[in-house]
């Protein structure tokens, strides 16, 4: 009987610890490039946690340098501890290590912003980006997330995933409409992805943001496994139809270069 009580007590402690960790993770993931600083009140309301609970978590995470509090505004932001861990991951990620050189050359050849992204849960995550040197450009930042169905890179990811995973993404995301050009019908998206598989390329025609287009191709590792996508992003109004073939060729070339750097020799 004593042993059973001890096990039950230990299980309860583990469950409590797990809930605390879950809340801390929700808190860290509340921040983004678009919302780099948030107040305690906003965090409490957004996460559905009591303000006192959020306050205690923030204090603990600040001690670990995972969060930082502005001494004047009292607003909260991600701390240097997160940056340190992120840099360690970047240094260990072979795709990231080879991306910047290839992206730099792609931008030189096209004069458009370019990025490398990977599949993360049900969205596309930008892990490396190089901005266009031109004044009229599309700005993207590392850490930006985009829905799969409304981006060129996301369509590449959908095209290479299993039918089961595709259905799961569709069910979880719901294919929300972001612009009038967004594909929101599953059958239409499936037909679109058939063309992506045939050509190995995907285009975004203002489907995520009005006036923003992109072209993407897949990146593969030494085993031929799909690991990410490389994309050229541009304002639609400055890219005439005759230049699209050039952009497509340069994106394909860059995808081959990056894949070769990862050991793929197809």
UniProtKB/TrEMBL annotation:
Residues 81-264 form the IclR-ED domain. GO terms for molecular function: DNA binding; DNA-binding transcription factor activity. It comes from the Bacteria. GO terms for biological process: negative regulation of DNA-templated transcription. Residues 18-80 form the HTH iclR-type domain. Keywords: DNA-binding, Transcription, Transcription regulation. The keyword Nucleotide-binding does not apply. The keyword DNA-binding applies. InterPro entries: GAF-like_dom_sf, HTH_MetabolicPath_Reg, Tscrpt_reg_IclR_C, Tscrpt_reg_IclR_N, WH-like_DNA-bd_sf, WH_DNA-bd_sf. This is IclR family transcriptional regulator.
């Amino acid at each position: 009987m004593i042993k059973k009580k001890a096990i039950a007590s230990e299980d309860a402690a583990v469950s409590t610890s797990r809930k605390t960790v879950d809340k801390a993770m929700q808190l860290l993931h509340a921040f983004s490039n678009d919302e780099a600083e948030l107040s305690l009140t906003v965090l409490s309301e957004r996460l559905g946690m009591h303000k006192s609970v959020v306050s205690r978590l923030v204090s603990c995470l600040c001690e670990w340098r995972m969060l930082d509090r502005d001494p004047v505004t009292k607003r909260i932001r991600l701390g240097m501890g997160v940056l340190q861990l992120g840099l360690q991951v970047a240094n260990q990620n072979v795709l990231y290590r080879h991306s910047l050189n290839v992206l730099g050359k792609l931008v030189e050849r096209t004069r458009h912003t370019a990025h490398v992204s990977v599949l993360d849960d049900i969205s596309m995550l930008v892990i490396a980006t190089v901005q266009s040197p031109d004044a009229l450009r599309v700005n993207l930042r590392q850490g930006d997330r985009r829905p799969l169905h409304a981006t060129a890179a996301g369509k590449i990811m959908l095209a290479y995933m299993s039918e089961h995973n595709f259905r799961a993404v569709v069910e979880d995301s719901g294919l929300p409409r972001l612009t009038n050009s967004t594909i929101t019908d599953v059958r239409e998206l499936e037909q679109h992805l058939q063309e992506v598989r045939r050509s190995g390329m995907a285009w975004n025609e203002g489907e995520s943001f009005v006036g923003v287009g992109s072209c993407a191709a897949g990146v593969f590792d030494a085993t031929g496994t799909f690991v990410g996508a490389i994309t050229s992003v541009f304002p639609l109004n400055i890219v005439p139809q005759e230049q699209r073939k050039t952009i497509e060729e340069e994106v394909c070339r860059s995808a081959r270069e990056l894949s070769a750097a990862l050991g793929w020799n197809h």
